[in-house]
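Question: what's this shape?

___
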Amino acid sequence: MNTTENFHQLAVRPAPGKHTLTLVDESGEQVQVAFEILSKEKDQ
């Protein structure tokens, strides 16, 4: 997706659903976290 240097921030707008975020450092070590984006309910 992208890389960062110095400030480790990245703006994304993932679609609703299940996703996995994978972080990898310069040594190849990685950590993963699963998360879910819920769809926004429309006003009734």
Observations:
- Strands lie at 17-24, 30-37.
- Residues 1-39 form one domain.
- The chain has one domain: 1-39.
